[in-house]
């Protein structure tokens, strides 16, 4: 997937940013630790259903950074943007 394709698909997933043509990421902020962990658990449900698993980082007790890439190709695919949209829906 080239940078132009990535930029076009990013328009459909509000808040996500690209890191070259390797990954997209977004950071979510919650009120507290429990809400942040609950969000991670909801992401896990989506990831299992889609069989597409993001990298998840919880830091400073209420910040959740989500990174998506297709590990098999070491880059981005349309699946990354589909999962990003579904994560936005549950956020």
Notable characteristics:
91 residues; alpha+beta; Gyrase A, domain 2; 4-stranded antiparallel β-sheet; 4 strands
Q: What's the helix count? A: 3
Strand-residue proportion: 15-25%
Bulk shape: globular
Architecture in CATH? 2-Layer Sandwich
- Examine the coordinates and then state which fold CATH places here, giving the name of the CATH topology: Gyrase A, domain 2
Radius of gyration: 13 Å
Helix percent reads 40-55%
- CATH top level is Alpha Beta
Structural class of the helix and strand makeup?
Answer: alpha+beta
Distance between the termini: 26 Å
Q: Spatial order of the strands in the main sheet?
A: 1-2-4-3
The count of β-strands is: 4
User: Main β-sheet: number of strands, strand sense, barrel status?
Assistant: 4 strands, antiparallel
Unreliable sequence segments = none
Q: Supply the CATH superfamily name.
A: Transcriptional coactivator/pterin dehydratase
Average pLDDT works out at 96
Number of domains: 1
Quick recap:
The chain contains three helices and four strands. With 91 residues, the protein is α+β, with helices and mostly antiparallel strands. The termini are far apart.
What would your notes on this structure say?
The chain is an alpha+beta fold. It has a single domain (3-90), classed as Transcriptional coactivator/pterin dehydratase (Gyrase A, domain 2, 2-Layer Sandwich), CATH 3.30.1360. It has helices spanning 3-10, 33-50, 78-90; strands at residues 17-19, 23-29, 55-59, 63-68. The protein has a four-stranded antiparallel sheet with strand order 1-2-4-3. Helix 2 (33-50) runs antiparallel to helix 3. The chain is globular and about 40 Å long. The model has no long low-confidence stretch (mean pLDDT 96).
